[in-house]
Batch of 2 targets.
Target 1
Amino acid sequence: MIYLDNAATTRTAPEVVEAMLPFFSENYGNASSIYTLGSVSKKALNQARRTLADYLGARQEEIYFTAGGSEADNWALKAAAEAYGEKGKHIVTTRIEHHAVLHTCEYLEKHGFEVTCVGVDGEGIVNLGELEAAIRPDTILISVMFANNEVGTLQPVKEIGKIAHDRGILFHTDAVQAFGHLPIRVDELHIDMLSASAHKVNGPKGVGCLYIRSGLKLRGFIHGGAQERSRRAGTENIPGIVGFGKAIERAVRIMPEKTQRETELRDYLIDRIEREIPYCRLNGDRSRRLPGNVNFSFQFIEGESLLIMLDMKGICGSSGSACTSGALDPSHVLLAMGLSHEMAHGSLRLTLSEENTREEMDIVVEAIREIVGKLRAMSPLYEDYLKSRTAGS
Amino acid sequence: MYSEKVMDHFQNPRNVGEIEEASGVGTVGNAKCGDIMRIFLDIDGEGIIRDVKFKTFGCGAAVATSSMATELVKGKTVREAMQVTNKAVMEALDGLPPVKVHCSLLAEEAIHAALWDYAEKNGITIEGLERPRSDIGEQEEEPEY
């Protein structure tokens, strides 16, 4: 199997699993308990918190563990809206956010807030001029993702953070795809809230975190016990949190090497596809993108067919085609970037990890070439194209 | 998610291709929805479908339903081909996931569109056949935000 869907989820690293295991059957104490077994859990919890805080250049008490990235996004947006709703009812975000942000914004719109979704350019980079123009006197929050999950484009987070802070507006970033993959310093980037997830960076599923800058008056999202400074009740997922901490410790340790390896493989794959497969388009910015992200649209074919045929060959990828999401429309990200429906339906995302090899990339290119050829041979759109070309010459 | 039959027809689609100077050609669906089917029919003087070919842009179910629909009408009379409904296509494929049922409707529509073309070319009326609803001529609309 060649796994190229690391933006969907990653393999939990063996050292992460090893670090988690004792917290299931040996050190299973509740971190809130007074006895020694509980304090072992408490200590592990705090150590993980410290690892995450160090990575972000934040303070330990600014890290709140959640059950994942979606919970963190929901919490950040809803709590900020609640806390600052008296100051204003306007939120600025982008058209290319994850649904955890977009659907939360839709929910807030039903509860009296107004949301402006700023557009992006053809490479998927947020239009800063449009973002500034969208700001109103009653804007209380700007939420822009750190890196896009589909096309991997890195957003000008620092500039956006500065724009927000110069106007006294809160800045939240959904950093699920970037956390542990790129250096992130919350102070330098003017970030007030940041959402992250463990399983996108070789940690376990079901655990994430929200960074909340000290001084923000955000209320808790889950009510109950006094865990997470009374802001997120519920017995802590100690094995998961330990795994998250270990995953970030590992990610920081291997980051330079991993980034270099993935970038080389990424550019090799992009180069071969562009040179060898006609009528394709690289989606997303060529250099301002996540090290492991490759996203192409292949004209005249549909993404789900391509994915199933790749799966037959043991290759795992994903697509922005409507059929892969169960929705009627293809990827909102690709449409926001100006792609036609046809091109959005024909997209293929391959996301690499440091475990992939050049030999795998070669196999993948051959597979795509063969499959795209086969699908085009049965595509009425390709037939029409060829006929129009013949007629035109 | 797909039955073995769907996977078989997707991997080894029957009757892919074109028919030069076909008796009837029908194209349905549009790129916006992500499915376009085109069916070519070769119908003899007795009204029997001697050959049928298809081309499809779409997901696995779209390819499989096109393939199965062509199998079901091949060698049949025009009247018999009219009995090939989306249900018949689905049953022959051992079912489709609920979100893919529209693919079978499209396959039925593609057959009907090709028959309509045949009827128009020959100035005949086929009982129960209505003008196809959608075709590729519907231009893609600009994305709405």
Target 2
Amino acid sequence: MKLLTPEFGLLIWTLVAFLLVFWILAKFAFPAIVKGLKEREESISDALATADRVKAEMAQLKNENEALMAKAREERAIMIKDAKEASDKMISEAKDKAKSEYDRIVAEAQQAITQQKNAALTDVKNQVGNLVIEVAEKVLRKELANKAEQENYIMQLADAVKLN
Amino acid sequence: MAFKSVKFLLVAALGFSSLLYSGKTIAQENHKEATPSEANHGEEKKEGFDAQEVIFGHVLNAHEFHFLDLPSGPVTIPLPVILYSPERGFTSFMSSKFEHGQAVYEGYKLVDGDVKAVDVSGNIDEAVTIYDLSLTRNVVQMILALIVLVWIMLTIAKKYKGGQGVTSAPKGMQNMIEPVFTFIRDEVAKPNLGHKYEKYFPYLLTVFFFILINNILGLVPGTANVTGNIAFTVVLGVISFIVITVSGNKHYWGHIVNPPVPFGIKFIMVPVEILGIFTKPIALIVRLFANMLAGHIIIICLISLIFIFGNISTGIGWGFSPISIGFATFIYLIEVLVAFIQAFIFTNLTAVFIGQAIEETHHADDHHHEVAGGEKVTTAHYDDAIIL
């Protein structure tokens, strides 16, 4: 039957056509397409891997940043606390120092005042003594100007002296 | 992976069986109707609708593209006839010189579509051997299809070389071919051939696209039935046979000449295995041929039914035409599916057969354990013998 008997010409042409097409496609078309697809698939998988890695790195960075932030906050708190303590201390020290200085100055001033007062009193006493002596001298001089009185007075003195 | 291939085979089998089924019912209908029509035909030859001639005229190869018959004569595109005969040498002329079988030209005549040598008195001269290398409609259509295929592939390859589709998204025709490409690679080549797939990948792709483009172009009304011609499938089958046989490794051949079965069964199994080498490509050849031919025949039969009924009565012819067109449309759509399925099956089975031929021993071991069951120890023993 004609349907089932292969024609010679068609066999030859099909064979030639297949081999030719196979040669052309396998040489010029398929390698480029296969290579292109492979490269794209690789670049996509690379890109995905990179994205994952970057994501992980980002997460890590974020964690690190947060840790750093927390640490910084803690340090700031400590520093503020220290500073406050230091300033308090300085203030109280200064106050103490000022007080002791004030006490010292007051004490010195009092001492000086006392000294000067004593000196002034001594001076006053001396001058009063001198004045008394001068006045007494002047009074004595006046009272004992004549001779009778001088003898009277000596008599008086002599009377006062009890001779035992 | 295995599950997937089973699924594909199921889909293919379903498509195929539904086609067979519908084919069978329609063929039966056709047969019922064809018998009276044959009788009618015998009685009323002048009514002039010969279903057999129409059907075979449609599915067989020819020396011209025949579109329709007008009262003034047939409308055709003549094609070049190239003949070689050892007695007469090369001859080449256009097929229009034959005047559709009416005329003798340079000592050749067209008899039932075949070129025959005739002697001076016009009688067929059987003594002259003719090698008909004509560019028949199948050849011309195949060449056109392949030009389209090569053009598509080279255009795409150029795009990939230029970086389109590599560093950027694929565009246009790349999107059409790329899924098929990756499908053949991931579902056909890799599961069957494993890490050696790259060596056979261009061949598998060529086979697939070669069959597919000819299947599709053959579906355009008025074109030739290229893939449903036995010569076409024989060439592809023989090439598959050569590839499978050449790829066969020691294990494959060892299996054939010394199958891992008990001694007594060897005498049966060796001839069966040797037969199996040839039945595989023959199955490929017949499957593609029969499927594509059947599709074309069913469609042309359904259309012919209108005219067969029309011969009985014009009214019945008109009345039957919607049913006929409906069925033909249905089969046509199935044929579009079949065009892809058959290209896939041919490629997939070729890959499976190559896979069997290049299979390493340990896979075969598993296979035998499954098949042989109780003979486990024995088969293992024989496989060891083969390795040694």
